[in-house]
Amino acid sequence: MANARSAVPFGAGLAAGLAISRLLTSPQAHFARMSGSSIAAPDAAGWITDFLNAAYYRRPAGERDVEDLRTALGILTTRWHQEGHRRLRAPDVLPFHRAFGRARLSTGTSARGTLSHDELLAGAAGLLGDWFPAAWADDARRGWGIGFETPAAKAQYDPEARLRLARLGPLTPGRAPGREQTWHTYPPVAMPAAGDVVAALLATEAWPDYASELGRFTPLRRSDLLGQTFEIEVAAGTEGGRPVFQRGYVTITRLVTPAGPEELRAYVDELNDGLARFGRDEPPAVPDGATPVAAFDLTTHEGHFMGSGNNRLVLYEQDGQAWARAAGTWDPMPWHLDQAYKRAGRDAQHAFWGEGPLEQSMLHQLALRVGRSG
Predict the structure, then answer these.
(1) Based on the number of CB atoms within 10 Å of its own CB, is 151 exposed (0-12), middle (13-18) or buried (19 or more)?
(2) What is the residue extent of each domain of the chain?
(3) Angle, to 10 degrees, between the axis of helix 45-52 and the axis of helix 93-105?
(4) How far apart are CA 284 and CA 319, in angstroms?
(5) 84-136 pLDDT, tens per residue?
(6) How does pLDDT run across 151-176, given as a tens digit for each residue?
(7) Residue 286 contacts by C-beta under 8 Å, 6 or more apart in sequence?
(8) With contact defined as beta carbons under 8 Å apart, do 185 and 171 qualify?
(9) Are 336 and 31 in contact, with CB atoms under 8 Å apart?
(10) What is the C-alpha to C-alpha distance for residues 148 and 151, in angstroms, rounded to an integer?
C-alpha cells in the first residue's frame, strides 16, 4: 500500500511535468516568447517602449518623422553593440535616463515627455560618444541598424552576434495545397530607377534604413541577399501611442534576376498562375505587358507571427516606371495566430507592404531612401 500511495504523487507529478513541457513547447508558448526584440530581455521592454514612445509614437502626428524612430532604434542597437552584444536589461535604463531624462522633462524644443530630433542626437552623443551623430548620417559608418565610429569598425562587425540571440527555428514554407492557402497581392509601389532599387536591396546591411513605424528588417548574416536571414520586428497599436512589439524570422530562399531571364520569366508566370487559380479576385503580381526585373522569396521560420508561408517581392517596369510589389501565400493559421492577426495584424501587414500611409510602409520608405540617394 505504501508503494501504491507513493506512486500516486509521483504519477501526478510526472503528468504535470509532461503537461508543462508540452505547454512550454507549444506553438502558443513559442509565439509568446517571440515578443520584443532579440537584443533585449523581457525586463527591458517597459523602458525601451517608453524611449521609442518619446522619440516617435507619443509625439503629435504632425511632428513625427520616421527618421527619428530609425535613429532611436539605432541608438538602442548601437548601445547593445557597445555592451558586447549582451541583451539589454532593466538596469540599462539608468544610462539612458542620464542621457535623455533632462530633455524629456524640458519643453524647450519638444513637448514634455518627448524627444525632438536634436534632443535624440544630443543624448546619443552623451550616451554613445560624440562621434555618433555624424556616424549615423554616414552610409560608410552605418549598417545593420548600428552606428560605427569608423568604417573599419563597421567592416569588423559580425552580424551573427545577433543571430546567436535569436530563437531561430527551422524553415516553415507553406505546404498546404494551393486551394487551401491564402494568396494575396498588395498594391504596387512606385520606385526610382529599377537598377538603383536592386542595388539597395542587395546591400542587405542597409535594410534597417527602410524601417517604417510598423516594422523593420535586420539582417543576421554576413551574406548576399540569397541566403540572408532577417529578424522582423513589427509593432501593433501604434495609432494609440501604445506599440506592442513582436518578432519573426524569414530567410531569402530564392532569388531571380535578369541574369537568368528564363528563370525570372518562369518565376513570374508560376506566381501569376497561382494567383489566378487560387486567389480571390487577386490581380497578377506582374501585370500583362510589364517587364520583370527581379524577384525573391522570403520563407518563414518556426514561430513567425503569420504562421507558415512564403512572402515574395517582385520588381518590374511598365511604361518607363519601376514598381515593387509584395505577394504572399500562407497556410491556414493556427487559431492563436489567426485571432491575433484578425485583431491587430491584418491592417498592419497590409499597410507595411504598401496599402497604408508613407510612414507605415517599408516599400514607400525604400523608395524615399533610394530616391534621395540616387
Answers:
(1) middle
(2) 2-33, 42-157, 178-373
(3) 30
(4) 17
(5) 999 999 999 999 999 999 888 776 677 878 999 999 999 999 999 999 999 99
(6) 999 999 999 999 999 989 999 999 99
(7) 268, 271, 272, 292, 314, 316, 325
(8) no
(9) yes
(10) 7
CA nearest to 229, candidates 241, 245, 217:
217
Angle between helices 66-82 and 117-128 (to 10 degrees): 10
- Whole-angstrom distance between the N-terminal and C-terminal Cα of the chain? 84
Question: Is 360 in a helix, a strand, or coil?
Answer: helix
CA–CA distance from 134 to each of 41, 267, 277 (Å)?
Answer: 29, 43, 52
Can you tell me whether residue 153 is helix, strand or coil?
A: helix
Which residue's C-alpha cell is 542587395? 202
Nearest residue to 299 via CA among 312, 286, 290: 312
Burial 261-270 (b: 16+ CB within 10 A, else e): eeebeebbee
Alpha-carbon distance 213 to 352, whole Å?
9
What pTM did the predictor assign? 0.88
CA dist 95 to 79, 88, 101, 127, Å?
Answer: 10, 12, 10, 7
DSSP string of 40-93, one letter each residue: B-GGGHHHHHHHHIIIIITS-GGG--HHHHHHHHHHHHHHHHHTTTPPB-GGGH
- Look at domain 178-373 and name its CATH class: alpha beta
User: Cβ(141)–Cβ(205) under 8 Å?
Assistant: no
- 194 is written with which cell numbers? 529599377
Name residues whose C-beta falls within 8 Å of residue 213's C-beta, 6 or more positions apart in sequence.
Answer: 56, 57, 64, 66, 69, 235, 238, 359, 360
Rounded distance between C-alpha atoms, residue 158 and residue 182, angstroms = 37
- C-alpha distances in Å from residue 167, one per residue of 30, 31, 36: 9, 11, 12
> Are 295 and 268 a contacting pair, CB within 8 Å?
yes
Cβ atoms of residues 2 and 8 within 8 Å = no
- Report the pLDDT value the prediction gives residue 167, as an integer from 0 to 100: 82
